[in-house]
Every structure is written in C-alpha cells, then in structure tokens.
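Our preliminary data section would be incomplete without showing what the modeling component actually yields. Below, a chain of 428 amino acids is followed by its predicted structure, encoded as tokens that our downstream tools consume directly.
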Amino acid sequence: MSEREAALKGAVAGLILSSASALAVMLPTAAMAQEEPIRIGYIDPLSGPFANVGDAGLKQFRYLAEKMNAEGGILGRDIEIVGFDNKSSAQESLQILREAADEGIHYVTQGNGSHVAGALVDGVEKHNRRNPDNRIVFLNYAAVDPTLTNEKCSFWHFGFDANSAMKMKAITDYMADQDQIKKVFLINQDYSHGQFISQAGKDLLGEKRLDIEIVGDVLHPVGKVKDFSPYISRIKASGADTVITGNWGNDLSLLVKAGDQAGLDVDWYTYYAGGLGTPTSLGKAAAGKVKMITEWQENLAVRYEAPELRSMLEEFEQRYSGIEFYYLRVKTEMDMLKKAMEKAGSADPQAVAFALEDMSIETPFGTATMRAADHQLMQPLFMSTFGEDYLEYDSEGTGFGWKMDAEIPADETRVETSCEMKRPTRAS
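Predicted structure:
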C-alpha cells in the first residue's frame, strides 16, 4: 500500500469514527427530547383572596395529568402542569406568560378572572406574531366573558366553559317558566364578567317575561367587600323575590351569608355556588335557596350512571380532603388536548390548534364540540338546587348537596357569535 493510499485509508477511518461518535452523542439527545414532558402553564391565583380557588384548580389539573401519564401520556410523553401564581393580576399574568415562553412552555391554561383572560388573549396574540417558532396556545377553562369568543376571539384561544351569554340564556329560559318570580335584583362584581351579566340579565328577562320587574342592579369591587350588609339592605328594601349574581369565591359566600343573617328570603341564581369552599361557607344558609347553572355537579354522575366519573371524584376527594372534583371541563380540556395532539401527530401548537377546531368528544351527558367559528365549546348545561334533597354526594361534608332541576341540551345553549377569526396559513 502506497503512502498516499495509507493516508487516505486513515482519513476515511477517522471520518467513520468521528461520525459514529457524533451519532452516539446525538441519539441520546434526540431520545431525551422525545421523552421531555409536554408542559402546561397553569396561571391563576395561588395567593390572595382567591388562593383557595386557584389551588383547587391546580390540584385537579395535576390529578388528571397524573392519571393520563399512568396510561401512557400523550404521544408517549408525560404531561407536566407548571403552576404560576398570578395574584389575580392581569399584569402579573402577562409577565408569567413571558416567563413561560422563555421556558419553552407552549400551552397555558387559566380561568379565574375574565380580565386576566382578556389580557392573556392579547399577550398570546402578540407573542405568536413576534415568535412564529415559539407559539403558545391558551386553553381557557373558566373565564366566561363573551367578548373572548366574539370581538376578542383568537385562533390561539379556546374556551372550555360555557360563556356568560350561554349561561344567562339558560338561566333566563328556566326563570321564564317559574311563575312565582316577579321581582329580580342583580348584583355582580364590577369587571367584564359581572358587567355582562348585569346587562344580559336585564335584556333577556325583558324579552322573555315582560311581567318581571327589575328592582335593582348593583356592581361592586372584586374581592374587596368584607361586609355585604349594605347591599343586602338594598335588596331587602327592593322587595325582590329573586337575585341573579355571577359572583364567585368569597364575594359569593359573604353575599349569601349576609342575606341569611339579615333574614332575606330570596332565591339566588348563581354561576359558581359549587366552587371550592362556597358550599361549606354557605351551609344551611343556602339550603333550598341557591341555584347554580353549570356543566357538572357530582350527583350527575349518579343520575347519568357514569362509573368512571364516580371513581375519579371519589379518588380525588380521598386524596385532597375538603376539595371537590368541581371542574368536569378540566377533564374535557385535557381529553380534547390529547385527542388533538394524537390527530396532529405532534405537540406543535399550530397543528394542535387546527386539530381542536370542530373536534367532538363524548361525555356521559352528551357530545361536547369545539365550535370552529369562535373556539367556544358547546356542551350540555344543568340547573341545580343546593339542599338536603340530593341523590348521593353531599358537598364538602356539609350534609347538603346538589339536585338537578333541568337539563339544557348543548344545542339549546348556542348563541350567535360575532367572531371574525384570523387564522394562520397551515404552511406557516
């Protein structure tokens, strides 16, 4: 072998060895990337007056992620829920959004406060325009301001709770059939969610029952009122037999308790009376008086013979004593996210967003469909009353539970949308 041939042979051998070494380094890296969890940033209050609500939501997301991971996760990858405390602040939430993006988190979820959700929609839109290689999808599990799926609608936002317009339609349809209702008082938190309920309640009752008199309409600061007795005095003086409120958390508990202490005899039509700690706070004060419009309460699992849901809620409540399995829509969100990623064949945010459009899943109560026009989930709703007459599950050990009064099929909850969505091209 000539000196030239020997040198060439050595060079080839070296190249092969170098390539093998590089491949040996690359293969574990690729495998590690494949095994990295799919992370979802949970952005909600974990401190302040609504910390208990945010903490309960975080526990339910993590519980469902754990169950999903035990069954193989999504596309062979685990789901990790990363908790962020936004202190109920829109500005804090936008800062968290930037942090989540810097950490490579492509999915965020939030629900407590439509003012926060509105800021996040804007923030995600701006971020995705500026960072096409690092996009984020916003999965909204509880913020229900209708503007989020109307004039503020976004391709990157998906609403998994029925919005306020849908719930108010269901509430007023039900109230229209209750002949004993004559005088209605509205009291709500002074932000977008409460403001909408105030206006929509008056408008819809005016259309459906001309004989019903609106005898009061009040907005109050969010999370700052410690004594609701002055408001109760106004309700009592008005002669109201019914109150509509979109209040949640302490703002609802303190309101109803103040009414009970003052001897106020009204029916309360609410959105969130089943929320964490509220049944415990209300107790006997709410029995037979407080109603709730929602997609879920635990006795529906008995009525509709849903053993999987019964098993889950019982296991969850054994693990987290004092916290109910409150958000069926969190399970719906997680199930649809998994189905969308499997349909897309990846966790790429844009591909998953397209896959979510018009997606349907079956629940024990019927079909839930993500309407493509505005990314609003269509699902059955239920009117229920809090009291001693319930099927099996009481709320938070109070001895009182929820009994279904009426089922509203998904098609009957639909309202028109003004959304004019701007979608990215599938190739971008």
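The first helix runs from residue 3 to 35. Residues 165-294+380-413 form a domain with the Rossmann fold fold (CATH 3.40.50.2300). Preliminary results of this kind motivate Aim 1 of the renewal.
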